Amino acid sequence: MFIDILHALLTGSAKSSMKDEEIVQEYLLTQKGYYFDILYKRYSGKVFGKCISLLKNEEAAEDAVQEIFMKILFNLSKFSGKSKFSTWIYSITYNFCIDTIRRRKKDPSTLVDDIASHDVAEDVEDAFLLEMNIKKLKVVLEKIPVADKAILLMKYQDEMSIRDIGGILDKSESAIKMKIKRAKQKFKKVHHEIFSNT
Amino acid sequence: MKANNFKALQEENEDRFANKSEGVKKNVNHSIGLVKMIGNMFDLFIPRIFSVFTYMSGGSPSDKNQDEDKKNTTKYPNTK
Q1: CATH of range A115-195; options 3.40.50.2300, 3.40.50.800, 1.20.140.160, 3.90.1170.50
Q2: What residue in A sits closest to B17 (Cα-Cα)?
Q3: Interface contacts (A, B; CB < 8 Å)
Q4: Best label site of A81, A145, A166, B14, fewest CB within 10 Å?
């Protein structure tokens, strides 16, 4: 135990510069807790950020972080390395939050496939979303359906590829492109409804 | 560099977690420890439970391994 701690202290800086995938390999080989600690330190804040954005409740988000990290730990051996480790973690996070909301059934619009329900009129520029004042951004994200919010976070916050988003949501790339387009339109519409008079 | 306020929002949310991080980590470690302990208990006792059931249903627990151990163990272990 003491030797483990000493080893961790002496090599801590070297380990903190290791790639995620290397840390996962080391953890799987040695089962030493400090490898998991490094991953926790790197990702817990980001996971919490997504949970609180989607679940809209701080306590629920804390519980979700706990459960998500347990899932990550128990499924670490299943990480194949096909995608980035961050993408893998975020996919667990999004799917967990989406399942939680589905169970709550508070928001029936959550994950309804609403491709046919909106008129595709115009493309919304990325800059409109990216450069929006952060307070306004928060307000609008609170008002749009969770499914749209999740897809916008994947695209603009996590900068995931269309392919990765498709993998997480189990949809084709063209369906994802369409969903992003519609989510942006809804975002713009909600923004207009809230802020057009101010 | 292009502005991205989605990232700024993420950083803001991360900051909110800073003072909760250790508590959540403790809970994670505690839960993992508990699961591991239950797993170890199963590993330890499940084979014995099967033996007990076998014994109760009238069979005799397999003593094949015990016989082999006896064969391999000489009376004086350090002699050939």
Answers
A1: 1.20.140.160
A2: A45
A3: 77
A4: A81
How does pLDDT run across B23-60, given as a tens digit for each residue? 999 998 898 889 888 988 888 888 788 888 888 887 76
CB < 8 Å to B16, chain A: 48, 52, 58
Distance (Å) from the alpha carbon of A62 to chain B's nearest alpha carbon: 7
Mark A19-47 as b/e (b = at least 16 C-beta within 10 Å): ebeebbbbbeeeeeebbbbbbbebbbbbb
Q: What is the pLDDT of residue B58?
A: 79
Taking only the tens place, the pLDDT of each residue in A53-103 is 999 889 999 999 999 999 999 899 898 888 889 999 999 999 999 899 988
* Cβ contact A70–B24 (<8 Å): no
Average pLDDT, chain B: 79
Q: Which residues of A168-198 are buried (b: 16+ CB within 10 A; e: fewer)?
A: bbebeeebbeebbebbbbbbbebbeeeeeee
Q: What is the DSSP letter of A124?
A: P
Mutation site for A-interface testing, chosen from B1, B2, B4, B6 by largest number of A Cβ within 10 Å: B6
Mutation target among B11, B12, B27, B28 for the A interface, most CBs of A within 10 A: B28
pLDDT at residue A107 above 60? Answer: no
Percent of chain B at pLDDT > 90 equals 14
Distance (Å) from the alpha carbon of B54 to chain A's nearest alpha carbon: 33
